[in-house]
């Protein structure tokens, strides 16, 4: 989808403080900062804070999208599986009179915390400015379009939209992905051949047009 925002695991990992907490699970990226602020001081936030910037998919059942459960060997009862400790909105493992049953939807069922989609596969890409001979190697998501990659590259060249993007002399369709533009991800082949992928990164060449569009 054109409007889908993709993130690399590295980008998620940068949000790892109590004032800026992101996590990923089941293929999506979530900004839990508002949740943490709303429940500031709650001891049940500790597992979430400890996992800031990380993937917590192992907490969830991919079929039900709910917290994993297990059978307690001592009681034979089904309980939530919380290897990092019980966290916010997970009920206690035993009857508890002070547990609020009207707390609404658990945070992991809320869509308001969604930031985007976690890339299923990232790749490195060389972008060469033929006008200045400057070269940048950036990590991109295989699912995103060249326009999305251009947005990533703007930090290095504010006039990036004033260039024609080409690969092997062929102009690229900026609405398509690298793969759809005929630029394959060869990481698996390099692995099979025991080749260093860092030495054979695919390159896109930028050719300057006649205007200086700046974003």
UniProtKB/TrEMBL annotation:
Q: Which residues form the Cytochrome b5 heme-binding domain?
A: 4-70
Under Gene3D superfamilies, the record lists: Cytochrome b5-like heme/steroid binding domain (3.10.120.10)
Identify the SMART domains for this entry. Answer: Cyt-b5 (SM01117)
Which keywords, in A-to-Z order, does the entry hold? Answer: Cell projection, Cytoplasm, Cytoskeleton, Heme, Iron, Metal-binding
Where does this protein reside within or beyond the cell? Answer: Cytoplasm, Cytoskeleton, Cilium axoneme
InterPro entries of this UniProt entry?
Cyt_B5-like_heme/steroid-bd (IPR001199), Cyt_B5-like_heme/steroid_sf (IPR036400), Cytochrome_b5_domain (IPR052320)
Respond yes or no to whether keyword rRNA processing is given for this record. no
Task: Please name the PROSITE patterns in this protein's record.
Answer: CYTOCHROME_B5_2
One Pfam family this chain carries?
Cyt-b5
Its family? Belongs to the cytochrome b5 family.
> Entry's PANTHER family?
CYTOCHROME B5 DOMAIN-CONTAINING PROTEIN 1 (PTHR21281:SF0)
Q: What role does this protein play?
A: Radial spoke stalk protein that binds heme under oxidizing conditions. Required for the coordinated beating of multiple cilia maybe by functioning in a redox signaling pathway.
Q: Indicate what this protein is called per its UniProt record.
A: Cytochrome b5 domain-containing protein 1
In its UniProt entry, the species of origin is given as Huso huso (Beluga)
